[in-house]
Amino acid sequence: MTIDNLFSTIILVAFLVTIFLAMGSYGAYRWRESRRPKEETRPEGDEPIYFERVTLGTEDDAASR
Prior knowledge:
The model has no long low-confidence stretch (mean pLDDT 81). By secondary structure, the protein is mainly α. It has two helices and no strands. The protein has one domain (3-64). The longest helix is centred in the first third of the chain and has 33 residues, at 3-35.
């Protein structure tokens, strides 16, 4: 086996391994995204359940500053 054949074989194998790893990575990403829970909303509005706005004081206090 000549050095040219060895290098071309190494490059071909590296290219194929890269393609297979990219396909596996994309498949794992899609699987993870399909397992993510759907966004829940409150019955009275379109706001998310888990986040609420926190204010420091009332609006009157902010206006007087």
